[in-house]
Amino acid sequence: MERVLSWQQPDGWLGWGFHGGRGAETAIRLLCEKGIAHDHPVLLRALQALEEHPERLREGIGKVGTVLDAEGLGGSRTIQATVLAWSPLPKIYLRHRS
């Protein structure tokens, strides 16, 4: 877990890219599965960054997710919602976006 915690970027993003081995999706999922404290500052900042920076969903192998989202086929936005749902926190980060 220490290695994953060290991946946090200055803007709170955890990892590099979004979907993939060292991306935010993997990092947040791993921390939640390993039982990180619900109020751990790295997790809180990562979830906030995930919600506040939707443009970063296209980084890394997430580029195809934009196409899938446009077609209603469950792309990056679906993965983003899943990651936020994994979190042990109240769903304070979820906001409707058009």
Describe the structure.
The chain is an all-alpha fold and 98 residues long. It has one domain (2-86). It has helices at residues 2-5, 24-33, 41-52, 63-70, 76-86. Helix 2 runs parallel beside helix 5. The relative contact order is 0.18.
List keywords for this structure.
disordered C terminus, 46% helix, globular, 98 residues, mainly alpha
Summarize the structure.
The chain is mainly α. Helices cover 46% and strands 0% of the residues.
Overall number of strands: 0
Low-confidence region ranges: 92-98
What structural class is derived from the secondary structure elements? mainly alpha
Question: What's the helical proportion of residues?
Answer: 40-55%
Largest sheet: none
Q: Calculate Rg over CA atoms.
A: 13 Å
Distance between the termini: 35 Å
Average pLDDT rating? 80
Strand content: under 5%
Report the total helices.
5
Order of helices and strands: HHHHH
What would the principal axes of the Cα set say about the shape?
Answer: globular
How many separate domains?
Answer: 1
SSE diagram, text form:
Elements: H1 2-5, H2 24-33, H3 41-52, H4 63-70, H5 76-86
